[in-house]
Amino acid sequence: MSEEHYLELCENPVQFENTSSVNNVFFDEANKQVFAVRSGGATGVVVKGPDDKNSVAFRMDDKGEVKCIKFSIGNKILAVQRTPKSVDFISFIPDYPHWECSQECKMKNASILGFCWTNWNEIVFITDQGIEFYQVLPDKRSLKLLKSQSVNVNWYMYCPETAVILLSTTAQGNVLQPFAFKSGTMSKMPKFEIELPVVPKPAKLNLTERDIAVATIYGQLYVMYLKHHSRTTDSPCAEVVLYQLPREGSCKKTNVLKLNTTGKFALNVVDNLVVVHHQSSQTSIIFDIKLREPDCALNVHQPVLPGRSIHPYRIPLTGPAAVPTHPPVPCELYSSSWSVFQPDIIISASEGYLWYLQVKLPPTVNLLQDKGKLMDFLLRRRDCKMVILSVCAQMLNGGDKGGLPVVATVFDKLNQVYKEYLEAEQTYTVATESGTSRGSSARERPVRTRAVIDQSDMYTHVLSSFSEKKDTSHKFIIAVLMEYIRSLNQVQITVQHYLYELVIKMLVQHNLFYMLHQFLQYHVLSDSKPLACLLLSLESTYPPAHQLSLDMLKRLSTANDEIVEVLLSRQQVLGALRFIRSVGGHDNISARKFLDVARQTADQMLFYTIFRFFEQRNLRLRGSPSFNPGEHCEEHVVYFKQVFGEQALMKQVTV
């Protein structure tokens, strides 16, 4: 079972102090920072973030119990709430005079529920009567109200990634009013209603913040509602309902995730997967909303994989009591002291740790038997390349041979992603070269994700070793290679010559020359210079390969030099000369190269014919049959005189 833990806590968690001397621990979702606040005389604060740059310790005057504390982006300004009416500000701007100020909320009789930094100097107060958007002015040591909105607020939720605040309104709390913030502007988005489950009268159900999470999935903002059904209903099992919240337009209910159980749940989003933790069973399940049922307008999803617990985690002993021989202490998973934050953070207040939740892909391979569905799942994950390649190798090499239809499905899915990347790259290149990418609408270079598996990857990690398998039928190997080539051709990707070479090598190795001939005759193997050269090398084994190679080079039309070289290498001097004349290149060819080969044949009449051809060319081009010194044909002129006499040389025509 240990191999099947597909979720794990990160190896290097953020560790923070949570001893009895610490009064309060706060978490800032925007900066991913934990604040440990200790009171007594002066208030000591230790801030721990994901790296040392975000870690800081300081003291401030004790002006009462801290209710909320957060740094602005970049740790430039600290905001501290101690009363329901105001927020205090302390400057941490480097090389800038120290200053402090306080800001009361503008709305009369309002109580501040909390605040959110939307920029390094922009902050939103959320009160029970609405929201107030401020700009901090360090030079003036004050705040300026940019905009406010009155609305009765029960509670709020903030998504730092998109700078969207969600306000719960109405008596039942299920009408949500979103606001978006960007560069000093506040935009009111369309409000929407969360459908609450039906409960027997006179009972009433209110929506609480424990039931809601906000996160970005596949680049879109979603509100996730953890819906608990009444036990009196036909299906009392809980579900997660997703509402997509676009920047423009109304929010719509898009997905339902079936949990198939009841109890206490918590939500994370990791690598675009919705992770649902179930406390009583101490297991987690994952959902991928892109794995959808095509026939449903509203997508209903079952878990992608069976539920498994997070991989066991051991906490190393530290401090003066730590002894090197003492083993690490097992961490209590799914503890009641755990707090879960979006998108992928788990905090254990009792143990003083902040972890990032991670997905491990290798264990998913054996849990998801449908190879097509497995590929759809893996292709959308980070760090998926080597796992996908290992699945392909396993599918072909082991007892897991799924047959050609499965192989074809996998290749098609991989090459579709490959093609989309190549098209995006080509569009970017064309736009860049034509200058259309300049200006405000500049096109960004497409990012090559780990999901792009090109021909080189497939050849190096899968097909090359697969083609050498001794315990696998050569017919199956050839069929797989041709299936991959078919898949590439289907999406119009130019097949690299080394894949054709693998096929030809297999065909020759098993004396399947008739099949090789057919593949070439019907252009199943596309023409290329490297392929033509490979065919030439096969001539001793398969004599027709020489003519097949020449035919291929002729079809390429850009391989004239190669054809001449091939013919000369076989001492077919007249054939080479006839070919080069047929394509009109005879005025530029090297006379010495042809005369060298003609002389090597020891056929004097052939040498005479070739020599006379070049004399006539010289006369036509320069008015003299003599060779220029730069052509280095002196030794051939001497040989001609020796064999045929000086009188046989062409005479210059005088007018």
TrEMBL record:
GO terms for cellular component: late endosome membrane; lysosomal membrane; Mon1-Ccz1 complex. InterPro entries: RMC1, RMC1_C, RMC1_N. Residues 381-628 form the Mic1 domain. Residues 25-143 form the Regulator of MON1-CCZ1 complex N-terminal domain. SUPFAM superfamilies: TolB, C-terminal domain. Pfam families: RMC1_C (PF07035), RMC1_N (PF21029). One of its GO terms (biological process) is regulation of autophagy. PANTHER family: COLON CANCER-ASSOCIATED PROTEIN MIC1 (PTHR12897), REGULATOR OF MON1-CCZ1 COMPLEX (PTHR12897:SF4). This is Regulator of MON1-CCZ1. It comes from Salmo trutta (Brown trout). The gene is RMC1.
